[in-house]
Amino acid sequence: MIWQLDLSILSLIVVCAFATIMVKDLLSAAIIFGAYSFLMCLLWTEMGAVDVAFTEASVGAGVSTVLFIAAVHQTTRRVGFRKSGRGLSKAIGLMAALLTGLVLLIAEMDFPDFASPFSPASLHLSPYYITQTLHDTNVPNIVTSVLADYRGFDTMFETAVIFTAGLAVIAILRRYKKDDRCELPAPYIISEGYPDTIIRFVARQLVPFIQLFALYVVAHGHHSPGGGFQGGVIIGASFILLAISYDTKMIIGLMSERSNILLGNIGVLIYAGIGFLCLLLGANFLDYSVLSKILPATDKVMARSHGMLGIEIGVAIAVMAIVISIYINIISCGKYKNEE
Amino acid sequence: MDIIIVLLSVSGLIFFFATTVGLLRFPDFYSRMHAAGKGDTLSSLIMLMALVLYNFHEFNLASLLVAAKILLIGVFIFMASPTATHAIIDAGYESDIQPWTKEPEEES
Question: In the Cβ-directed half-sphere of B34, how many Cα atoms lie within 13 Å?
Answer without folding.
Answer: 9
